[in-house]
Amino acid sequence: MSGAAGPHILVLPGSARLGSPNRRLAAEAARRLALTHATVTLIDLEAYALPPYDADGAEPENFPPNALLLAERLAEQDGLLLVAPEVNGAAAPLLMNALAWTSQVRKVRGRPLQPFARLVVGLASASRSPLGGLRGLAALRGTCQALGAEVLTPQVTLADAAKGLDDRDRITDEAASMALDILVERLLEFSRTLGRHRF
């Protein structure tokens, strides 16, 4: 359940593949967050499809509409949970592309906008590797910090992701499940105290 007085938290998986363990982990995280007083929204990057970002060619007047929509969505939040796959030891290109576009949005319909300023960010990853996406999260952490977000220290790394979630998307690994509980708790706490709104 959600409460009107609670923080607004967006859960964003960095994979568009149906059945992706990161999408499934994001759904489980959203389920746990929804049991609190927070207002929780789970979105899909497919709904905000964007072309590849080109810093040399991107001009504000030519920003894709979805970049503006996603930037507005982020600006409305107190907290953001990114659930990101690792690709070649780095953060997923799909997610990094979305962050690149939204980070450049400074104004929408004449209204100033700062999508990442004072945004509290939690990080999680599911991976086939024994490291559970740890290297990808390290890269993503640096990016979010550079954008001005408050990135939480606790994070979730779910290794052997094919076996780490059951058929109801519940985490079967006890340590990873406890880590998600801690991350949810901290995300709520810091979204209240550091977020853009006060509760």
UniProtKB/TrEMBL annotation:
Gene3D superfamilies: 3.40.50.360. It holds the Pfam family FMN_red. This is Oxidoreductase. GO terms for molecular function: FMN binding; oxidoreductase activity. InterPro entries: Flavoprotein-like_sf (IPR029039), FMN_Rdtase-like_dom (IPR005025), NAD(P)H-dep_reductase (IPR050712). Residues 8-161 form the NADPH-dependent FMN reductase-like domain. It comes from the Bacteria. One of its GO terms (cellular component) is cytosol. PANTHER family: CHROMATE REDUCTASE, NAD(P)H-DEPENDENT FMN REDUCTASE LOT6. It comes from Aureimonas glaciei.
